[in-house]
Amino acid sequence: MNAVDVFLEVLSWALIVSGSVFVIIGSLGLWRLPDFWARLHGASVTESAGVILLIWGMCIQAGFTLITVKLIIIGIFLFITGPTATHAVANAALVTGWRPSEAEGLTGAEPEPLRPENEDDALDGGEE
Amino acid sequence: MTLAGLFALWLLMSGLFKPLLIGFGLASVLVVGWITSRMDAQDGDHLDIRLSPLRLAGYLLWLLAEIARANWSVMRIILSRRMPVRQHLFRVPFSQKTDLGQVIFANSITLTPGTITVETERDNFLVHALGYDENDDEALAEMDRRVAQVETAGGV
Fold first, then answer.
1. DSSP assignment of B19-55, as one string?
2. How far is residue A73 from each of residues A80, A95, B15, B67, measured CA to CA in Å?
3. Which range in A9-23, B63-77, B81-95 is most confidently predicted, on average pLDDT?
4. For position A116, what pLDDT does the model report?
5. Cα separation of B137 and B133, whole Å?
6. Of chain A residues 29-88, which have a CB less than 8 A from chain B?
């Protein structure tokens, strides 16, 4: 093992361990935070920092191989689908009438009333 | 063109060059091409990508730094004993002209821990923040500006 190998090994080790720590912190947040809206944010720690660091660490472990290509593709998919899924969950909660509890001294914005489904809406549907 | 791209993707994913597997790859590429051409004939819905690749790469780097910072602050909230949660639902105006630009902005907001895009309206997003403070509007306005710069041309 030469110096570069050792360095890469240590780097990927550090990335994977810190990624795992973020996953655990996210889970801890999911468990400790007080209500639904706050818990969504706990999950997003896992999905951003955890995923990014773990995938980087695994890419370094794999080196210049097809596995790295696959890992990067997985990363791109998670980068796009993760927030979209979070948005879908939050949006479903909002539409069914749930409102987050506001901190002291703050009033939340009320969403605009849903527009009736006319033909215009049907045509430009599927924006999410 | 699309078919060649799909086949290249197949080769990348499989990494095996046995005739049987190549055959499977070719067959599935052709089936996918056939299905999508039928779908195209149905609705003709196209997505124009009007983004500057270089500026998009620059934006992604900036977004990574932003995600790191936001992770740090959410982590502090989760780990602190009193959990200083300060939830707030507020409006964020967006200035992107294309659908794709708006999607990138909304997903960037959700991707940075501590803020989630909850609803899209005609000119605003409704954003929920875990630890809201008064600088957040400013930070999101900067993100909005940066995403708008990634777009190359206006258009709907």
1. HHHHHHHHHHHHHHHHHHHHHHHHH-------B-HHH
2. 11, 33, 15, 20
3. A9-23
4. 55
5. 8
6. 29, 32-34, 37-38, 40-42, 44-45, 47-49, 52, 66, 69-70, 73, 79-80, 82-84, 86-87
Q: Which of A28, A66, A90 sits opposite B118 (nearest CB)?
A: A90
Number of helices (H), then strands (E), in chain B:
5, 3
The span from the CA of A34 to the CA of A39, in Å, is: 7
Residue spans of the domains in chain A: they are 3-102
pLDDT band at B30 (very low <50, low <70, confident <90, very high): very high
Give ipTM to 2 decimals.
0.78
Q: What pLDDT, on a 0 to 100 scale, did the predictor assign at position A11?
A: 93
If you average pLDDT over residues A35-54, what whole number do you get? 87
User: Are A83 and A43 spatial neighbours (Cβ–Cβ below 8 Å)?
Assistant: no
* Cα gap B45→B5, rounded to integer Å: 20
Pair A79, B110: CB distance under 8 Å: no
Q: How confident is the model at residue A59 (pLDDT cuts 50, 70, 90)?
A: very high
Lowest mean pLDDT among A57-71, B17-31, B40-54: B40-54
A69 pLDDT more than 50:
yes
Residues in chain B closer than 8 A to A28 (CB atoms): 78-79
The residue assigned the tokens 């947040």 is: A29
Whether chain B has a CB inside 8 Å of the CB on A121: the answer is: no
Tokens found for residue B9: 């993707």
Q: Give the 3-state DSSP-derived string for A18-68, with helices as H, strands as E and coil as C.
A: HHHHHHHHHHHHHHHCCCHHHHHHHHHHHHHHHHHHHHHHHHHHHCCCHHH
Instruction: Determine which of A48, A54, A74 to mutate to test the interface with B (most B C-beta atoms within 10 Å).
Output: A48
| Nearest chain B Cα distance for residue A8, angstroms | 21
